[in-house]
């Protein structure tokens, strides 16, 4: 059990190219590791990076190890609320950078991908020599914090609605089970009691199966969840593009990916001043296979010399926003920066509304099915009760 807990705390450090000797539980105590894994919020991540950039300076930049050493010392001398977590983070990054890991790589398994992209950009030569690099990075960090918190809030809302949908269906199955037991009890006393009553036998059978084999039902639900999650991140082809238009879990993931991709591009292109091709490469390094597929489409269209509005239209945007992009393209917005401005102007709210609508639609459908099931069971039970009284 302890091994599984440690494995969860470590996360997928191998995929982040972090040596096993430098995993979270190898460097920190279990308490420190748990504190980071469960409580290192987007705001604290931004706060940590602002501290790092401030101590690092701009003209005569300090080395990462020196900066982290200073931060760790200052945190240990402080009694501010939440500083214990910052001590653990600085300790972890200090050990990793001492062993030769680049800072953005050392951050990969504990920071948001938006922040790791910013730090990777900050280490580039062009950014180091930029006169307003510090200001750009500060703005980028604030924007990344806002975007990450916004996406996390939407994901929590979607997750809540999905859980509520499953619970409503489960509740209807429990009701069907109870209705079945009531029916069988009356049937045993009077075999003719259902002679003139329409009994929902199929609903009873389903309710009995779900409740009697609850562990199997739970295993089926978990398996379906893991399968859909894997398909969300890894299934990429033309058929997937079709399913993205009507299968609710794919629609939700598509819009969340759209938020991640366009937020990342905005950070790197508009704030950190990356070229489009470089921004796509950097973003792709931290993206899922599905997101990389769309980024590759953007890269291909960039190579073909298409307008910026066409480069961004890969299928991640709601239909209304796609139309807005097309109109902007016809009106002269040909660059990627101009296209991103169009997306950010009203695109975020449209994507968030589309996400909310889709998740709410699933909840309403599940609630309707649950209500219909409960109505069928309740009506049958009411008629059976009347029959048992001889009414």
From TrEMBL:
The chain crosses the membrane at residues 213-231, 252-274, 361-385. The lineage of its organism: Bacteria, Pseudomonadati, Pseudomonadota, Gammaproteobacteria, Vibrionales. Keywords: Membrane, Transmembrane, Transmembrane helix. This is Type II secretion system protein GspF domain-containing protein.
């Amino acid at each position: 059990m302890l091994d599984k807990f440690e494995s969860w705390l470590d996360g997928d450090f191998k995929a982040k190219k972090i040596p096993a000797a430098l995993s979270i539980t190898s460097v920190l105590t279990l308490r420190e590791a748990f504190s980071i894994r469960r409580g290192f919020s987007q705001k604290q991540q931004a706060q940590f990076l602002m501290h790092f950039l401030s101590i690092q300076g701009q003209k005569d930049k300090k080395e990462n190890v020196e900066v982290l050493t200073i931060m760790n010392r200052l945190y240990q001398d402080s009694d501010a609320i939440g500083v214990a977590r910052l001590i653990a983070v600085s300790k972890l990054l200090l050990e990793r950078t001492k062993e030769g890991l680049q800072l953005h790589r050392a951050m990969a398994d504990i920071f948001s991908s938006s922040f790791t992209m910013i730090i990777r950009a900050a280490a580039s030569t062009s950014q180091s020599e930029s006169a307003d690099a510090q200001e750009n990075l500060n703005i980028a960090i604030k924007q990344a914090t806002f975007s990450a918190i916004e996406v996390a809030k939407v994901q929590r809302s979607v997750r809540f609605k999905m859980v509520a949908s499953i619970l409503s269906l489960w509740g209807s199955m429990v009701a069907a089970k109870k209705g079945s037991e009531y029916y069988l009890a009356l049937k045993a006393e009077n075999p003719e009691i259902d002679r003139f009553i329409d009994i929902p036998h199929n609903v009873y059978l389903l309710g009995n199966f779900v409740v009697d084999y609850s562990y199997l039902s739970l295993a089926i639900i978990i398996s379906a969840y893991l399968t859909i999650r894997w398909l969300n991140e890894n299934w990429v082809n033309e058929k997937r593009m079709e399913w993205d238009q009507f299968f609710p879990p794919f629609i939700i993931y598509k819009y969340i990916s759209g938020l991640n991709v366009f937020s990342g591009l905005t950070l790197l292109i508009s704030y950190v001043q990356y070229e489009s091709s470089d921004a796509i490469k950097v973003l792709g390094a931290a993206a899922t296979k599905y997101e990389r597929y769309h980024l590759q489409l953007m890269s291909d269209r960039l190579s073909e010399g298409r307008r910026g509005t066409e480069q961004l239209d890969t299928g991640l945007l709601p239909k209304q926003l796609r139309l807005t992009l097309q109109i902007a393209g016809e009106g002269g917005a040909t660059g990627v920066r101009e296209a991103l401005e169009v997306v950010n102007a009203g695109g975020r709210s449209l994507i968030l509304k589309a996400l909310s609508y889709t998740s709410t639609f699933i909840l309403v459908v599940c609630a309707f099915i649950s209500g219909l099931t409960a109505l069928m069971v309740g009506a049958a039970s009411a008629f059976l009760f009347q029959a048992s009284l001889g009414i």
